[in-house]
Specification:
The complex is a heterotrimer of chains A (478), B (469) and C (433). By secondary structure, chain A is of the alpha+beta class. In chain A, 33% of the residues lie in helices and 24% in strands. Chain A folds into four domains: 81 residues, Uridine Diphospho-n-acetylenolpyruvylglucosamine Reductase, domain 2; 119 residues, Uridine Diphospho-n-acetylenolpyruvylglucosamine Reductase, domain 3 (2-Layer Sandwich), CATH 3.30.465.10; 117 residues, BMC (bacterial microcompartment) domain (Alpha-Beta Plaits, 2-Layer Sandwich); 82 residues, Alpha-Beta Plaits (2-Layer Sandwich). In chain A, strands 12, 13, 14, 15, 16, 17, 18, 19, 20, 21 and 22 form an eleven-stranded antiparallel sheet that branches. Chain A has a five-stranded antiparallel sheet with strand order 5-6-10-8-9. Chain A is globular. Chain B is α+β, with helices and mostly antiparallel strands and 469 residues long. Chain B contains 16 helices and 18 strands. In chain B, the strands form four sheets. Chain B has a seven-stranded antiparallel sheet, sandwiched between helices. In chain B, strands 5-6-10-8-9 form a five-stranded antiparallel sheet. Chain B has a four-stranded mixed sheet with strand order 1-2-4-3. In chain B, helix 1 packs antiparallel against helix 3, helix 8 crosses helix 10 and helix 13 packs antiparallel against helix 14. Chain C is an alpha/beta fold and 433 residues long. Among the domains of chain C are: 95 residues, Orthogonal Bundle (Fumarate Reductase Iron-sulfur Protein, Chain B, domain 2), CATH 1.10.1060; 117 residues, Rossmann fold (3-Layer(aba) Sandwich), CATH 3.40.50. A four-stranded parallel sheet of chain C has the order 2-1-3-4. A four-stranded parallel sheet of chain C has the order 6-5-7-8, with helices on both faces. The termini of chain C are far apart. The model of chain C has no long low-confidence stretch (mean pLDDT 89). The chains are: A alpha+beta (478), B alpha+beta (469), C alpha/beta (433). Chains in contact: A-B, B-C.
């Protein structure tokens, strides 16, 4: 250990205490490891740590549970891992006014549990909800299937508190749904990957818990049929909360309720929320729409009447009903809310399951809604041509394709290049979510555009003039 | 005054007839729907992003500030040329560029009227959700500038939730695209920060809008109350019964009086408050929810509750609400609207305090507000021909905003800060917060030419400093 | 031009009116001129601001302001869409009057207003001469005379538009024809001769008289002068009052008529406003009120007397253009013409978007501001085209002429423009044959 590092350790220990500083932590980001992990327990400590880093020109990467630490270019400098899991307080929970302010280190799961007790709903469902923290979710703007109905982070975060690289704590936005007081810096902070400041607190909008939540699952032999179905659903009055499609390979990774039927086919998973009558009506409409396009396939409707008076939410009676040829058959099985939840869990954790199954590379394609199907077809074609194995999940209501790949590096790269070219042609983008293999040979965020990138650069220069936070990891290596 | 050579250059870009610089013309560009005036040096009619860019480049070379203007219906002084210079008039850029149903997007030019966006896709079964009450008269570009809201925003969100990308002429004249039809463009959410920036970060010349499929069913109800508190309690009770109506709009007695004089919408003249509730979505379950709402209102001492039985009845109820601001003119020649927002449950208390402030200054205060999201609009009545009145009104307005800030709310919900509320920014932000906001302006517009003197109190150009015609 | 700030005293009575403008901008989307130009000084809000500045001494009466107040169709769409209903048309007329008083009206214009319009014989002679010159291939000379345009600019446009020249004026044509009711005589109707029909479209007047007779009316062709609306529009309010009084005198004992009817929306609309125009005159205001009780627009009268349903079939799609002076902004005769049209067997009625938007003719407007007028017309013709109707029906000679011009310009050769009375007349005739 260099004398310099030792002096840093001493100074930082002075700020956060001995037990909150770890030397040579077992963390690597694109091959680089920091000298220190610092885990402040208060916002003030975060301020002091950052001010110190700023004065000494240290490279800092903030993190929560580290579920998205891999996303981004290799860091230019990486001295401190700023672990925010110590900021784990709910700051202000106003159930009546449907808002909650929480510190960055609060886990999504814990927040959901808290508000569920009051029959409220947290309208964000990111990947790995068991570990993901509020700060990480906001900084990466990571959200899940139900985003289709409830919007993305930019639609539900009302305000943030941020510690700037100079150590100052500032707030943007507030706690009201409508707020146009000043520049909407909150939006700019969401998804900024921590390049402008460290998000230490966020205020979210909450919603009343839906009266009923069901899932409809339907098998499709061909991608073209699901494409048609999605078009029909989107151009209808139906309002599903999510519209996800798992490719046959991705479907194989899912365990639980949907695991043992329609093997080898595409699996459409539709989330339905709202008034029970509206949910049931949509189930009927959707099963018949599906049956028209893919006859002789089975559908699964997981759901049922919501909690009876005086019972706990977990005691909801859920039936799992199998439909044949669009008609309900007599094979109902009673299951429970956990079944509904667990299917979502499986989907939220798909990226990790895929990785464990050998799909080492994850990428996200975002295109205008209707173009996502063309992207999926192109992915299948390019993968087959290059001998790469892929599994994918489509969020049809959001125009997103989450792609998991395994194969030779060069071949995988070829597929990625193909898809990025096409995505850009369709006014979209391809972002690499995990980058263990390429060492910077493939632009994580895509080629930066001229003027746009200069605005980001100018913004970065204002907020982080000394280049402390996540340096080199962002778009255009900013 | 700007140099004659600049005028000549501008004429070279857009043509002789499209540059106005005589006083009579300029005096029609010195105001918006706020109370102040500031006379620009020239008005330039532009017809394309390229022309906007060329004009902005001239402004850069001559170091002359510029302000983009559309329909100028904003209520906070957003398009006043506080440091004179060039008004870039976008009124003729009102075309629809693309209607893309399969991707649920539409691309329009900035000066298109808000209502005409929906008008263009209505027959295809789609609509554009943000619905400011001035939708008939205000432009989408202006909505973007102010991040406009509207009654339906309680359920569907405000302008920034529905504008996904844009072509922008930056303050140095560069033309660039931010965001687009797809979600999740890599890089900072510059679209997000541009929306609501009141023309201080550049001029949007094309906008990518999210359009939504029209709901299958709509149910509109009018609940009449003898007390504002009962109406407020009903709102909270509805939300706590797990319902998210599309709108929850409240109007107080003075507003009811004005509306009835102006357009006879059928609101009872002696009611203390009326609540306009609208449910939308699938028809299934809607009756039951409506029944539940009626029950809740009854529990909260509603005097009567009518459910619109046809589209004509629904339109009549909405006509009243949408015309509320304008109808105030029946009571008094002018009004100032304090556009504060508070956590919903603080509404009754806030309203009471606003009334007290009005009483203190001897000013009548009418109220129409978005009860669902706690966005209140106390309308302080006065006659701008009386200078003392005006001064009192401005003071009362600031005190009301202070009340909103003290209640945990904010000073502008949907009308923007402009010059009106710039000083009120100190009520919700400290100097460090404001400095961090100013960095945005500095990054985008280091020369401070795009609509200078707005939003940030540290940059406010006060009237006494401004060159007044 | 004086640089000294002088408040315009004569505007003070309108101060309360103009102070009501809260600058909300709701007048913009409905103002045909603003929609065509996007210019703030052309819309009510801009005019209100300038007018208020004049009152408050923030600006002076000068030539630059004239353009703003000239650019108004007086269609009242702004007032109809204004919450406090600011009567911007009154401000416009007041400005025009005041401006003319200060800077003078061209002597020739004044001479015409005072020496021609109140004298039908002189009018007929001048216009007859103009037609004659056109008939002799001297169209240019007619135009150069300029006098016709001065009297009523619409007439001049019509001259340019019309290929065949009417053989004679309506007044002459009706001199030796039977004007008594066909069948049982039920009403005595005074037929008001509008300049537009008299000099330009006499065949419309003939159709109108036929329809009236068909419905039991004994028709008397009135010896009226110009109703005075064009003069009023120029801001010569005094001249307009004089014409009104003169007309009231000419009509004499009103009790001799059950109704006074005009198939020109501008005439019928303006006649109904005589009472307001003459409100300050104790004698004439009473007589104007009496006149008001007798005056009907053509469609209004026919529906009121429950006109005989026409039997002759006309296989055509028809749309209706509301002349400004027929809309709720003026006399509010809106449902009646539609009802009459729909009653014609074989007609398929198609409502057009913005049917009550001004067509851009508007008094002197289409001459003085031809380019803007043509843009206003383009919008109108676009809406007509969208209906794909074969016939556009209306109830105003200037609208007929303007719409015909529009059809010609847009290459809509197959679109016929006619008056309501012509459509009914045709159907009656077919049934008779």
């Amino acid at each position: 250990m260099s004398p310099k590092t030792e002096s840093y350790t001493a100074a930082l220990t002075g700020i956060v205490g001995k037990d909150a500083v770890e030397e040579k932590p077992q963390v690597t980001v694109a091959g680089k490891s920091p000298s220190l992990r610092v885990r402040p327990k208060s916002v003030e400590e975060v301020g002091k740590v950052l001010a110190f880093a700023n004065e000494n020109g240290l490279g800092v990467i903030p993190t929560g549970s580290g579920t998205k630490l891999e996303t981004g270019n290799p860091p230019e400098k990486f001295d401190l891992l700023l672990d925010l899991t110590g900021l784990d307080q709910i700051v202000e929970y106003d159930a009546e006014n449907l808002t909650i302010a929480a510190q960055a280190g609060v886990r999504v799961k814990d927040l959901v549990e808290l508000v569920t007790k009051d029959e409220l709903f947290f309208p964000v469902d990111p990947a790995f909800p068991g570990e993901a923290t509020i700060g990480g979710v906001v900084a990466t703007s990571d959200n899940g299937p139900k985003r289709f109905q409830h919007g993305n982070l930019r639609d539900v975060v009302l305000g943030v508190k941020v510690v700037l690289p100079n150590g100052e704590l500032v707030k943007f936005g507030g706690r009201t749904i409508k707020n146009v007081s000043g520049y909407d810096v909150t939006k700019m902070m969401i998804g900024s990957m921590g390049i402008l400041g460290v998000i230490v607190e966020a205020t979210f909008r909450l919603l009343p818990e839906p009266q009923r939540e069901d899932i409809l699952v339907h098998a499709f032999p061909k991608l073209s049929e699901v494409t048609k179905l999605a078009g029909q659903v989107l151009d209808s009055v139906l309002v599903p909360s999510s519209l996800e499609l798992l490719s046959p390979a991705a479907r194989k990774l899912i365990k639980g309720v949907a695991s043992d039927f329609a093997v080898g086919e595409y699996l459409l998973v539709v989330g339905l929320e709202g008034h029970p009558d509206a949910v049931v009506r949509q189930e009927q409409d959707l099963t018949s729409m599906c049956a028209n396009l893919a006859p002789n396939r089975t559908a699964l409707v997981v759901g049922g009447d919501y909690v009876a008076e005086g019972k706990e939410a977990s005691e909801r009676e859920v039936t799992c009903q199998i439909h044949d040829h669009g008609e309900a058959c007599n094979c109902e099985t009673v299951t429970d809310q956990a079944t509904v939840d667990s299917l979502w869990e499986e989907i939220y954790n798909l990226e990790r399951t895929a990785k464990e199954a050998g799909y080492a590379v994850a990428a996200k394609v975002a295109v205008p809604l209707a173009q996502v199907w063309e992207m999926a077809a192109a992915a299948e074609k390019s993968a087959a041509a290059n001998g790469v194995q892929i599994a994918y999940k489509i969020s049809a209501g959001n125009g997103l394709l989450n792609l998991y790949m395994q194969g030779d590096n060069e071949k995988v790269l070829a597929v990625l290049e193909d898809l990025r070219t096409l995505a850009q042609k369709r006014e979209g983008s391809l972002v690499l979510k995990s980058t263990p293999l390429f060492n910077g040979s493939f632009e994580v965020w895509g080629e930066p555009q001229g003027t746009h990138i200069s605005l980001i650069r100018a913004t970065k220069a204002k907020y982080d003039p000394n280049g402390v936070l996540n340096v080199g990891r962002y778009v255009g290596r900013i | 005054m700007i140099d004659q050579s600049v005028i000549q250059e501008l004429k070279g870009i857009v043509g002789e007839d499209n540059v106005l610089h005589n006083k009579a013309d300029l005096q029609t560009y010195e105001y918006d729907a706020y109370l102040e005036k500031s006379l620009p040096d020239a008005v330039v009619f532009v017809n394309s992003a390229q022309e906007v860019s060329d004009v902005v480049k001239v402004a850069n070379r001559a170091q002359v500030p510029f302000v983009a203007r559309g329909r100028a219906t904003n209520l906070s002084g957003g398009v006043l040329a506080m440091r004179q210079g060039i008004v870039i008039e976008l009124a003729r850029m009102d075309r629809i560029i693309d209607i893309d149903i399969e991707n649920q997007r539409m691309i329009v030019e900035p000066a298109i009227y808000n209502l005409e966006v929906t008008g263009a896709i209505d027959n295809l079964g789609y609509y554009y959700a943000p619905d400011p009450a001035s939708g008939k008269a205000c432009s989408i570009g202006g909505n973007v500038g102010e991040d406009a809201g509207g009654p339906h925003c309680f359920k569907y969100g405000v302008t920034s939730n529905h504008v996904l990308g844009m072509e922008v002429v930056l303050p140095d004249g560069e033309i660039t695209w931010l965001g687009g039809k797809a979600l999740d463009t890599p890089g900072l959410d510059l679209t997000g920060v541009f929306v609501g920036s009141e023309g201080t970060l550049g001029i949007a010349t094309k906008l990518v809008l999210r359009i939504l499929h029209k709901p299958e069913a709509v149910k509109t109800m009018l609940a009449v109350y003898d007390s504002i508190d009962d109406a407020s309690s009903s709102v909270s009770a509805i939300v706590s019964h797990k319902m998210v109506p599309a709108t929850l709009e409240m109007m107080d007695n003075l507003v009811i009086q004005a509306i009835e004089q102006s357009m006879a919408a059928g609101f009872p003249l002696d009611a203390a408050a009326v609540l306009l509730i609208e449910l939308d979505g699938l028809k299934d379950g809607m009756e039951e929810m409506a029944d539940k709402i009626v029950e809740i209102c009854k529990e909260n001492n509603v005097r009567e509750i009518k459910v619109a039985t046809c589209e004509a009845e629904r339109a009549a109820l909405w006509k009243g609400r949408k015309g509320a601001f304008g109808a105030i003119a029946r009571l008094s020649p002018n009004y100032l609207v304090a556009d504060g927002t508070v956590p919903r449950t603080k509404l009754p208390e806030t309203l009471r305090m606003c009334r007290e402030i009005g009483d203190k200054y001897g000013l009548r205060v009418a109220n129409v507000f978005h009860a669902g999201d706690g966005n209140l609009h106390p309308l302080i009545l006065f006659d701008s021909r009386n200078p003392e009145d005006k001064e009192k009104v401005l003071k009362a307005g600031m005190e009301m905003l202070q009340v909103c800030a003290d209640m945990g709310g904010t000073v502008s919900g949907e009308h923007g800060v402009g010059i009106e509320k710039a000083m009120a920014m100190y009520m919700v932000y400290n100097e460090k917060d404001l400095l961090a906001q100013e960095w945005v302006k500095e990054a985008w517009d280091p020369q401070d030419l795009a609509n200078p003197g707005k939003i940030l109190p540290q940059r406010l150009i006060k009237r006494e400093e401004a060159h007044v015609s | 031009m004086s640089t000294e700030v002088t408040k315009i005293e004569e505007f003070l009575p309108l101060y309360d009116e103009v102070a009501k403008c809260g600058k909300c901008g709701f007048c913009q989307p409905t103002c045909p001129v603003y929609r065509a130009t996007g210019k703030e000084s052309y819309v009510a809000r801009g005019k209100n601001a300038l007018f208020r500045n004049l009152i408050e001494g923030e600006t002076v009466m000068e030539a630059d302001l004239k353009e703003a107040f000239e650019n108004c169709l007086l269609c009242r769409a702004c007032t109809a869409n204004c919450f406090p209903a600011v009567k911007t048309d009154q401000l416009v007329v007041a400005f025009r009057e005041s401006y003319a008083q200060r800077f003078g009206r061209s002597t020739i214009q004044r001479w015409i207003f005072r020496n021609f319009l109140p004298y039908p014989d002189r009018m007929a002679r001048v216009i007859g001469l103009a037609w004659l010159s056109k008939r002799m291939g001297m169209a240019d000379l007619a135009k150069k005379m300029g006098i016709v345009g001065m009297i009523n600019p619409k007439l001049e446009t019509a001259m340019e538009l019309r290929d065949e020249v009417p053989a004679s004026f309506l007044r002459d044509r009706t001199k030796n024809t039977d004007l008594t009711a066909k069948g049982e005589s039920k009403y005595k109707v005074g037929y008001w001769v509008s300049c537009g029909y008299n000099y330009m479209l006499p065949e419309v007047g003939e159709a109108t008289i036929n329809v009236l007779r068909h419905n039991g009316a004994d028709v008397e062709v009135l010896g009226n002068n110009c109703c005075g609306l064009p003069v009023y529009g120029y801001g010569d309010v005094e001249g307009a009052r004089n014409l009104a009084k003169k007309n009231i005198d000419v009509l004499g004992d009103l009790d001799q008529y059950d109704y006074i009817v005009s198939e020109c929306g501008s005439c019928s609309g303006h006649l109904k406003e005589y009472a307001e125009l003459l409100a300050a005159d104790p004698e004439y205001s009473v007589r104007a009120e009496r006149l008001l009780s007798k005056v009907r627009s053509f469609s209004e009268l026919l529906v009121e007397i429950d006109a005989e349903k026409p039997q002759g079939e006309i296989q055509a799609s028809v749309t209706y253009h509301d002349p400004c002076h027929m809309t709720t902004r003026y006399q509010g005769v809106v449902t009646q013409p539609r009802e009459l049209i729909k009653n014609v067997p074989g007609v398929e009625f198609r409502e057009m978007t913005e049917s009550d938007w001004c067509c851009g003719a508007a008094g002197s407007y289409n001459i003085m501001h031809n380019d803007v007028s043509m843009k206003v017309l383009e919008r109108k013709m676009g809406n007509v085209a969208k209906t794909e109707a074969e016939i556009v029906v209306t109830e105003c000679p200037s609208c007929i002429m303007q719409l015909s011009l529009g059809a010609k310009r847009q290459g809509m050769e197959n679109t016929k423009v006619m008056n309501v009375s012509q459509l009914l007349d045709e159907s009656y005739r077919q049934a008779d044959n």
